[in-house]
Write a structure and sequence with these properties.
This protein is mainly α. The protein has helices spanning 11-21, 71-76, 83-92, 101-114, 118-128, 136-151, 164-182; strands spanning 47-51, 66-70. The radius of gyration is 21 Å and the shape is elongated.
Length: 205
């Protein structure tokens, strides 16, 4: 485990404690794999012991104050003096299947940037080309273009992963290339052509 050596609470003590106090339903990890999979993103990673209430705010070194997160999620976790916030955060990001979390984060970023979902735009492209969206061909076309777009992307220096903006960009490049391959306009959704963005912060006021 790659974390600060002074934490005395063991990984197993934390798992034993929380598996008795929190239902895994709604989390990204099953308790049976909580030693190897991040409790937020569900990815199989080297995990770090993370204080729920930070040590700097008086958080104790005990199982009830430790969760297991990958380095990336650890860096994004809440640092407040209220233990409920950590669990609100973990449950808010729960996904049903391992290995899907960061793709979903990329899709969320895509929706934020382009105001429509990746899947809705993919379906519009396929329908414009006369290809049934639930056909094996549709799945192959989307996956092939997504694989190519992924191979043509790179990570930012010092990051061993695609960030959310890069994932959103990969989806956009894949959709553009798929549309070009099929000879259809992109965006194919009439309502997103010449889209006028409202300020991103307007929904927060």
């Amino acid at each position: 485990m790659n974390d600060r050596q002074h934490i005395k609470t063991t990984v197993q003590e934390s798992i034993d404690y929380w598996s008795r106090h929190v239902n895994e339903c709604g989390l990204s990890v099953d308790w049976s794999e909580a030693e190897t999979h991040c409790w937020r993103c569900g990815c199989k990673r080297n995990l770090e012991r993370c204080h729920i209430v930070p040590h700097a705010l008086g958080g104790k070194d005990e199982p009830s104050n430790i969760v297991l997160l990958c380095h990336r999620c650890h860096a994004e976790g809440p640092n407040v003096n209220d233990p409920e916030i950590m669990w609100d955060w973990l449950k808010a990001y729960g996904v049903s299947y391992y290995g899907t979390f960061w793709k979903i984060v990329g899709m969320k970023e895509y929706r934020f940037i382009y105001r429509h979902s990746v899947l809705k735009e993919a379906e519009a492209i396929l329908e414009s080309a006369g290809i049934p969206v639930d056909s094996p061909l549709a799945q192959k076309l989307f996956n092939d273009h997504l694989d190519r777009a992924t191979q043509e992307a790179s990570i930012h220096y010092g990051q061993p992963y695609f960030n959310a903006a890069t994932m959103a960009g990969i989806f956009r490049v894949a959709l553009k290339k798929m549309a070009k391959t099929l000879g259809v306009d992109f965006p194919s959704l009439p309502e997103v052509r010449d889209i006028a963005h409202e300020p991103w912060w307007s929904e927060l006021t």
